Automatic annotation (TrEMBL):
This is Kynurenine--oxoglutarate transaminase 1. It is found in: Cytoplasm, Cytosol. Coiled coil: none annotated. Gene3D superfamilies: Aspartate Aminotransferase, domain 1, Type I PLP-dependent aspartate aminotransferase-like (Major domain). It catalyses: an S-substituted L-cysteine + H2O = a thiol + pyruvate + NH4(+); L-kynurenine + 2-oxoglutarate = kynurenate + L-glutamate + H2O; 3-phenylpyruvate + L-glutamine = 2-oxoglutaramate + L-phenylalanine. GO terms for molecular function: cysteine-S-conjugate beta-lyase activity; glutamine-phenylpyruvate transaminase activity; kynurenine-oxoglutarate transaminase activity; pyridoxal phosphate binding.
Length: 434
């Protein structure tokens, strides 16, 4: 029996080639560290405050109401009430008539929307331009589709007069960007507002990208999950609204970020049918279907927001005001202890320069691990404060160029931010005391 069981053991490789080099995940590692050591978690990007009451009430109504069909399957590509209101809402924003059945598809969060885009549109040998720093899943998803990621970094320009840097100071070099486009380029991934920097791309920057997409006949995968979280009177411009871009752009959105309910995992894509038809093929052969009740509640949330659009009572007006205050509070807190924050124009996040704290965590020459990763691990273990290293948002070639920054999430309760400030203040006192 023993010899038979030894013979029965498989010797062929089990892992599909497409998984090579994609097994490590920053979130798996740092979420575990935060759960083990952190007193205050400003790492992962989710609010620790509740979604708005009207959204929770919509969910309860859907759950406990008379319509028992809300507990069953709905339309595979999106619950009809949700795709209808999304088509109405985004049609208004984009200034065009959208067909809810062909121009909108609902996904299991924006994450699945991205996966569908890469799997449905990227082939072996296709190149996909990714702007650095980037949300970390873009690179492995491109590789798993057989594509080749081509990276172009936002380059920081130091502000004058010793002011704090803004995310607007991180810019694309137009010549460098243009040089990345070739006949092999299938798509560019745009994330505005950008995670992790909080950069909101200006009209001029978007027009530069749009002109190159049109010139080279390239698709744009536009990750706009933070579209409502824009500060200081900045404007979120949708690249699909620019000349020549509707027909080649897929917009990705998220109810998790829109309504502060990341665990509901309701996302969507908006775009022309000629692109979305291929995403539907991918969708029907993977998850097939998203949670009906969550879609029903999100549909009701959007219905309310459409009626209140642009008014002071709109959640899309109130939330960025609240988050801007939280951002300013954390900026002040980090600046006071000598961690130089880069003031974000949007999102949940800000990046801070840890150069003045390097004496706490000595450099290890010739280490394979970027400095900021070792720093963030040391900080959570020794100070109880969790953050994410910025190098996690860069390709291998550029990781060490930006390894003196870490990313904090400020979409947190006041008490959480105050606890973080207490840790930082105590740390500063320890550094300055003899």
């Amino acid at each position: 029996f023993l010899s038979l069981s030894l013979q029965a053991k498989m010797s062929r490789p089990l892992q599909a080639r497409r998984l090579e080099g994609t097994d490590k995940n920053i979130w798996v590692e740092f979420v575990k560290l935060a759960a083990t050591y952190s007193k205050v978690n400003l790492g992962q990007g989710f609010p620790d405050f509740p979604p708005p009451d009207f959204l929770k009430e919509s969910f309860v109504r859907a759950l406990s109401g008379e319509n028992h069909m809300l507990h069953q399957y709905t339309r595979a590509f999106g619950h009809p009430p949700l795709v209808k209101i999304l088509a109405q809402f985004f049609g208004k924003l984009l200034g065009r008539d959208l067909d809810p059945m062909t121009n909108v598809m609902v996904t299991v969060g924006a994450y699945q929307a991205l996966f569908c885009c890469f799997q449905a549109l990227v082939d072996e040998g296709d190149e996909v331009i990714i702007i650095e720093p980037f949300f970390d899943c873009y690179e492995p998803m491109v590789k798993m589709a057989g594509g080749t990621p081509v990276f172009v970094p936002l380059r920081p320009k130091a502000p004058k007069d010793g002011k704090l840097m803004s995310s607007a100071d991180w810019q694309l070099d137009p010549t460098e960007l243009a040089s990345k486009f070739s006949e092999r380029t299938k798509a560019i991934v745009l994330n505005s507002p950008n995670n992790p920097l909080g950069k909101v791309f200006s009209r001029e920057e978007l027009e530069l990208i749009a002109d190159l997409c049109v010139k080279h006949d390239v698709l744009c995968i536009s990750d706009e999950v933070y579209e409502w979280l824009v500060y200081d009177g900045k404007e979120h411009i949708r690249i699909a609204s620019l000349r020549g871009m509707w027909d080649r752009t897929i917009i990705i959105g998220s109810a998790g970020k829109t309504f502060s309910a990341t665990g509901w995992k309701v996302g969507w894509t908006v775009g022309p049918n000629r692109l979305l038809q291929h995403l539907r093929t991918m969708h029907q052969n993977s998850v097939y279907h998203c949670a009906t009740i969550a879609q029903e509640a999100v549909a009701q949330g959007f219905q309310r927001e459409l009626e209140l659009y642009g008014t002071p009572d709109s959640y899309f007006v109130q939330l960025p005001k609240e988050l801007q205050q939280k951002r300013d509070w954390l900026v002040q807190s980090l600046d006071a202890v000598g961690m130089k924050p880069i003031i974000p124009e949007g999102t949940y996040f800000l990046v801070a320069d840890i150069s003045k704290f390097k004496s706490d965590v000595p450099d290890v020459p010739d280490s394979d691990e970027p400095y900021d990763s070792r720093f963030a691990k040391w900080m959570v273990k020794n100070k109880g404060l969790a953050a994410i290293p910025l190098s996690a948002f860069y390709s291998v070639a550029h990781k060490n160029n930006y390894s003196h920054f870490i990313r904090f999430c400020f979409a947190k309760e006041e008490a959480t931010l105050k606890a973080a400030n207490d840790i930082l203040q105590k740390w500063k006192q320890e550094k300055t005391s003899p």
